[in-house]
Amino acid sequence: MAELHEAAPLAVGMVWKAAFFYVVLLVLLRFMGKREIASYAPLDLVVSIMLADAAVISIEDERIPVLVGLLPVLVLVAAQLLLSWLNLKSPTIRSVVEGAPTIVIRRGVVDEAALRQQRMNLSELLSSLRLQNVHNLEDVEWGILEPSGRLSVLPAASARPVQPRDLHISPPEEKRPAYLVLDGAVDRRALAETGRDETWLADRLKRAGAASPREVFLAVLDPSRGTLTVQLRERRGRPGRPIAVPAVSEADAPAAR
């Protein structure tokens, strides 16, 4: 009991520092910009690991004050932001830090020298092609290995899907769907962007069989089709089926025009 009593202040200090550095790292990583882990450049990955290590060292060692432990974290973030700014301004620095794209497939032919340079074997290349639904090298006009390690594929003209312009068709412009209700909560910002209000939404949800947004799992407005698709919550373990209701009824159609 005596040992537990003596260790209590240390435990409280570690918990407090862990929570503090968690919030700090969350804010700093958000400030550094959005990027998926899979698309990290090598330097991004190194900085992320160093940030975590710097925080852990400060959390584990009770002799290190919080502000002192925060100093290397801030220095790393400042260095990363400075280097990111230099990457934007200087193509030379960007090519040195992040690397340059490498062509590994040219008109259906694999460039063996480029694969060796990138230390990529043929099995990895074929796997990357299959992930993009490409199963025949003859269907690839250009295959480019990006600095992030992802493979970009430009299909051959004979293998690419038919486009509307190939048929001399001008399809109508696609409009972005608006997710108005997510898990029972109304997204008022998305609703306002559509130019509609909660009275309109309540009327459409009622037509779909929902007395209130709390009974709705998902509601999506598709401006291109002019419909609001509503999926109700599960009832008695059975998932609700999507129900499409007109976004504009006959009664308010003249007002909309």
Description of the molecule:
The protein is α+β, with helices and mostly antiparallel strands and 257 residues long. It has three domains: 2-95, no CATH class; 102-155, 2-Layer Sandwich (CRO Repressor); 178-256, CRO Repressor (2-Layer Sandwich), CATH 3.30.240. It has nine helices and nine strands. Strands 6-5-7-8-9 form a five-stranded antiparallel sheet. Strands 2-1-3-4 form a four-stranded antiparallel sheet. The protein is flat, with a radius of gyration of 27 Å.
Rg over C-alpha atoms, rounded to the nearest angstrom: 27 Å
Structural class, from helix and strand content?
alpha+beta
Q: Write the H/E string, N to C.
A: HHHHEEHHEEEEHHEEEH
Terminal CA distance reads 77 Å
Which labels suit this protein?
alpha+beta, CRO Repressor, five-stranded antiparallel β-sheet, four-stranded antiparallel β-sheet, 9 strands, flat, disordered C terminus
Topology:
Elements (H helix, E strand, L loop, with lengths): L1 H30 L10 H19 L5 H24 L1 H8 L3 E5 L2 E2 L1 H6 L4 H10 L8 E6 L5 E5 L22 E5 L2 E2 L1 H6 L4 H10 L8 E7 L4 E6 L9 E5 L6 H4 L1
Helix pairs in contact: 1-2, 1-3, 2-3, 3-4
Short description:
The protein folds into three domains: 2-95, no CATH class; 102-155, CRO Repressor, CATH 3.30.240; 178-256, bsu07140 like domains (CRO Repressor, 2-Layer Sandwich).
